[in-house]
UniProtKB/TrEMBL annotation:
A Pfam match: PNP_UDP_1
Organism for this UniProt entry: Actinomadura fibrosa
Family note: Belongs to the PNP/MTAP phosphorylase family. MTAP subfamily.
Nucleoside phosphorylase domain boundaries: 13-250
Gene: mtnP
Reaction(s) catalysed (UniProt annotation): S-methyl-5'-thioadenosine + phosphate = 5-(methylsulfanyl)-alpha-D-ribose 1-phosphate + adenine
Pathway(s): Amino-acid biosynthesis; L-methionine biosynthesis via salvage pathway; S-methyl-5-thio-alpha-D-ribose 1-phosphate from S-methyl-5'-thioadenosine (phosphorylase route): step 1/1
Site (Important for substrate specificity): 173, 228
Entry binding sites for phosphate: 20, 60-61, 93-94, 192
Protein known as: S-methyl-5'-thioadenosine phosphorylase
Length: 275
């Protein structure tokens, strides 16, 4: 596998991957085209500065939402961020709730993930050597703690913890599937949290999900079922304060990584030269 050219100084230290309805971040940006062994990322990477922190932003669906969740170039997005120097990733996302207690407008920072996707490339290590990263705790504890703290300060009542089940999509779940997920104790459902989190782990990036509940999932609500219009409408109602929250988290994230997340993957020949 080829080695990417890295800039001499990191162009950015924090990456933000925007989801549905979150197509831009920061005003004064420079856009860079990054080529990767996995093709181009969803869009050129937007790089800007926030409170002295260099931030790289990419909207995972593309700014015109042309990539459905199962066709997002996840590997290219993570690789591009990493190649710019990013070491911590914030991942805002629209999700359904699997519990009536946490309705639309709730901010949740899950601590576990269940993968129900299929057919997505979910590793950088699919040739040459068998590499098995540890993924017991998929998210960065420091990033999570920072996000929950910033959310509380900003007046949200965030849900600290829970399990995000990631479905293949692009369809929403049936009521039976949804009830089954809820019966397992899983609390949130989305379509993009995997393989994004594991690809971040494979590149020794900290990854923190910021899940905005846009709906009660089909098995929980009593209405007609989840629709894309509903998701986008509720997200649009909340995106301003979510954007502010992401900015607060960027400002509060410690720059030295003292978390237990892998800093480099010992003994593993990363397909990328680490700075
Ligand atoms: C727009 S409806 C469903 C769509 O919304 C979520 O996207 P994201 O996680 O990027 O905010 C969900 O995962 C689906 O991709
Ligand atoms: N109910 C739901 N299921 C899957 N992905 C979602 N994204 C937002 N709401 C969702």
């Amino acid at each position: 596998m080829s080695t990417s050219q890295l800039p001499t100084a990191p162009a950015a230290e924090i990456g933000v991957i925007g989801g549905s309805g979150f197509y831009s971040f920061l005003d004064d940006i420079e856009e860079v085209q990054v080529d990767t062994p996995f093709g181009p990322p969803s869009d050129p990477i937007a790089i800007g500065e926030l409170a002295g922190r260099r931030v790289a932003f990419v909207p995972r669906h593309g700014r015109d939402h042309r990539f459905p969740p199962h066709r997002i170039p996840y590997r290219a997005n993570l690789w591009a961020l990493r190649s710019l120097g990013v070491r911590q990733v914030l991942a805002p996302s629209a999700v359904g709730s699997l519990t009536p207690d946490h309705g639309p407008g709730t901010l949740a920072v899950p601590d576990q993930l269940v993968d129900r996707t299929y057919g997505r490339s979910q590793t950088f290590y699919d040739e040459g050597a068998a590499v098995h990263v540890s993924f017991s705790d998929p998210y960065c504890p420091t990033g999570r703690q920072t996000a929950v703290g910033a959310a509380r300060t900003a007046g949200w009542s965030p849900v600290d913890g829970g399990t995000l089940v990631v479905i293949e999509g692009p369809r929403f779940s049936t009521r039976a599937e949804s009830l089954w997920y809820a019966s397992q104790g899983w609390t949130l459902v989305g379509m993009t949290g995997h393989p994004e989190a594991v690809l971040a782990r494979e590149l020794a990036l900290c990854y923190t999900p910021l899940c905005l509940v846009t709906d009660l999932d089909a098995g929980i609500e009593e209405g007609e079922g989840v629709t894309m219009d509903e998701v986008l409408r509720v997200f649009a109602e909340n995106v301003g304060r979510l954007r502010d929250l992401v900015a607060d988290v960027v400002k509060s994230l410690p720059s030295d990584r003292t978390c237990p997340c892998p800093q480099v993957l010992d003994g593993i020949d990363l397909p990328l030269t680490l700075p």
